[in-house]
Design goal:
Blueprint (H helix, E strand, L loop, with lengths): L14 H5 L3 E2 L18 H7 L15 E8 L9 E2 L4 E2 L10 H15 L4 E5 L8 H9 L2 H4 L4 H9 L3 E3 L9 H10 L3 E3 L3 E3 L10 E6 L7 E8 L4 H4 L1 H4 L3 E3 L2 H14 L4 E6 L19 H7 L5 E4 L6 E7 L6 E6 L6 E12 L2 E13 L7 H18 L2 E5 L3 E2 L9 H18 L9 E5 L7 E2 L2 E4 H7 L5 E8 H11 L30 E3 L2 E5 L8 E6 L2 E2 L5 E7 H4 L13 E8 H12 L1 E2 L9 E5 L2 E2 L2
Parallel strand pairs: 1-9, 2-5, 5-6, 6-7, 10-12, 12-13, 13-15, 18-30, 20-28, 25-31
Antiparallel strand pairs: 2-16, 3-4, 8-11, 9-10, 14-15, 16-17, 18-22, 19-21, 20-24, 23-28, 23-29, 25-26, 26-27, 31-32
GO cellular component, one term: outer membrane-bounded periplasmic space
Organism: Agromyces bracchium
GO molecular function, one term: hydrolase activity, acting on ester bonds
């Protein structure tokens, strides 16, 4: 299956008017309930309960028309309100709900309140990866092999999405898998800034124009431009290198918005998988990661930006365009279907075209509704298969293990990840020159809530420990490079006075560093002295009882995200790779546990690193 391609607009700017024809908004999919999901409540009362202000329902001025644009982002393969890791209804401390079935209930209510012909529904990316449902149908029972419809495609089609932008996680399972999913989607799937390597030619549809036919009024043409994240080329280098490049969001928007206007778009919406902070988690070798506000500020003729990637709830942000002085309305809905962004736009018709006279945005909380039963039914069989899979026993643990303290202590449960990675790499390089090198392994505390119970350990326990779909590689680093790497990792901790009270939970995540960017090594010994400034914290670095020499070479087991440059760690992205069999680390852990039958910390847990202050151990 080939990716959707379009010619460069510069020599042939007319292509969009014919290659992307005007499309009437599709009717409600058959079988999808449009009834109120809260028994006895009206559409207006449900919206009010969800945080919809009464002012939002005011009638437009005479001659004007009101339209509503809804948006989601960072759904991460959450179809229903279910936590596969806990095998229970999803719950968090705030009482949030998740899943596309919840989103559908909100969408149903907005459509009932506004009128279907007055609404559009978009998504800003990261839809097919991130939950056990996602990895099961990509890696365990791949839809590309079974021929099944991907559960997220099935649900999005049932809800009736009008367009979807690609997020960076759409590339996690490779371009062929992504093509398969795109081929199943009824909605247009967009990414204007993802181009064929070495060209400016989009690898996917850059934009589409939706025609809204409002009774008694001229058609309203809403153009939506999709933008993905430049970090794709780092985070999924193995999948896209030499095939896909990702341009700056600002550059792509400046190139395509005029084309959209020329093609007849009255209103321009940008669906961007990019936060609004203007910052990046990587260096300046790539365009800005979180550039949504920069697009609003620097590119004229944009009315609305739906953005995502940062997993935040931003009901409304107004940015003034520097060239035109016009306001751009922005909103980010909280991830996993916890919120739906809703833009209300009042349009006026003048000189043969529609334009935005007034507008506002908010986010609707999906915990105020229940799962749409029709959307639950769409994925019921697939959901049940995943529940059965994650509850499959794989081994017996001799004792309970927890990741609760893994961010500040060398814990057995994280050592298990390193043990599996080390043995997998050792077996792979047997008989090669690299087999003579000492092996070290890198792992990070992805999930502080992860546990292995004493007794039966299931796949969901393993999935809770290793929540990302990373693959295993091995590279070669020197002792000096490993020291630099560990110093960079140790910036995760705040600087703490040697005599301060012991409060480790308050020491972590310094500078906003997430847990998944605190890498811990096995196979070498070292101290992390958090009383020292960043860059001078690693002490007593040794291997086999001897100090590590600067030129000593090590074989390093590492995941693909880190090896490709994710997190900005030094040296690893340029280190020679000696093993890359595309083995999924989570599946390797499952296989290792299943073959062994028993998980015994006495066989693999070695306390090789520790926190210190002024040379004195904290614990």
């Amino acid at each position: 299956m080939t990716r959707h391609t379009h010619p460069d607009p510069e020599p042939t700017p007319r292509w969009c008017s014919c290659a992307v024809p005007d499309e009437e908004v599709a009717p409600a999919p058959s079988g999808v309930s449009r009834r109120n999901v809260l028994i006895g409540a009206s559409a207006a009362s449900v919206l009010a309960a969800a945080g919809w202000p009464a002012a939002a329902q005011a009638a437009p001025r005479d001659g004007n028309v009101k339209i509503t644009i809804m948006g989601t982002s960072d759904l991460h393969s959450n179809a229903v309100n279910w936590d596969y890791y806990k095998d229970a209804t999803y719950s968090d401390s705030a009482g949030n709900a998740i899943g596309l079935a919840r989103v559908s209930s909100v969408v149903n209510q907005v459509r009932a309140d506004r009128g279907r012909e007055h609404t559009l529904l978009f998504d800003a990316g990261d839809t097919i990866q991130g939950s056990p449902l996602g990895f099961y149908y990509a890696l365990v029972d791949p839809v590309t092999e079974s021929g099944a419809v991907h559960p997220i495609a099935a649900q999005m089609n049932a809800i009736g999405y009008d367009a979807v932008a690609l997020g960076n996680h759409e590339f996690n399972y490779g371009l062929e898998f992504l093509d398969y999913w795109i081929g199943q989607m009824d909605a247009d799937v967009l990414a204007a800034n993802a181009v064929h390597a070495g060209t400016k030619v989009p690898a996917y549809a850059p934009y589409t124009i939706k025609t809204m036919k409002v009774q008694g009024r001229p058609p309203i043409r809403v153009g939506v431009l999709g933008l993905t994240n430049p970090g794709v080329v780092i985070w999924d280098k193995a999948n896209v290198s030499g095939k896909i490049e990702v341009q700056s969001l600002v550059e792509a928007a400046a190139r395509w918005v005029p084309v959209m206007k020329q093609a007849g778009a009255d209103i321009v919406v940008v669906s961007a998988h990019s936060g609004d902070s203007g910052a990046s988690s990587y260096g300046d070798e790539l365009p800005v990661e979180n550039a949504a506000a920069l697009v609003a500020e620097q590119v004229p003729d944009i009315d609305v930006i739906l953005f995502g990637h940062a997993h935040r709830d931003v009901p409304q942000r107004i940015v003034t365009n520097a060239q035109t002085g016009r306001s751009v309305i922005m909103s980010e809905p909280k991830n996993w279907g916890q919120r739906v962004s809703v833009f209300d736009l009042e349009l006026e018709f003048a000189r043969g075209a529609w334009s935005v006279a007034n507008g506002s945005a908010l986010t609707v909380d999906t915990r105020t509704v229940v799962d749409d039963p029709a959307l639950v039914a769409v994925v019921r069989a697939q959901h049940d298969a995943v529940v059965q899979y994650v509850n499959t026993p794989v081994a017996t643990s001799t004792e309970a293990m927890s990741a609760a303290e893994a961010c500040w202590k060398d814990t057995a449960i994280l050592d298990y990840v390193n043990a599996v990675q080390t043995e997998t790499v050792a077996a792979a390089v047997a008989g090669t020159p690299e087999a003579a090198l000492p092996i070290v392994s890198i792992a990070a505390p992805f999930n502080r809530a992860a546990t292995f119970p004493a007794g039966e350990v299931t796949i969901k326990d393993v999935a809770g420990l290793y929540i990302y779909d990373n693959t295993l590689l091995a590279s070669v680093l020197t002792g000096a490079q490993i020291r630099d790497y560990l110093e960079y990792s140790a910036k995760y901790f705040a600087q703490v006075d040697p005599g301060a009270p012991v409060a480790p939970a308050s020491w972590t995540n310094a500078g906003g560093t997430p847990d998944y960017n605190y890498d811990q090594f096995s196979g070498i010994d070292y101290d992390v002295d958090i009383s020292q400034p960043v860059g001078s914290r690693i002490a007593n670095l040794s291997s086999g009882g001897a100090p590590v020499a600067s030129d000593q070479r090590f074989l390093v087991a590492v995941n693909n995200y880190r090896q490709s440059g994710g997190g900005g760690f030094p040296h690893i992205a340029t280190a020679p790779v000696v093993y890359n069999a595309q083995v999924a680390i989570r599946e390797a852990i499952v296989s290792y546990a299943s073959e062994a039958g028993v998980i015994d910390p006495a066989e693999f847990h070695v306390e090789n690193w520790r926190l210190t202050r002024g040379g004195t151990p904290v614990f």
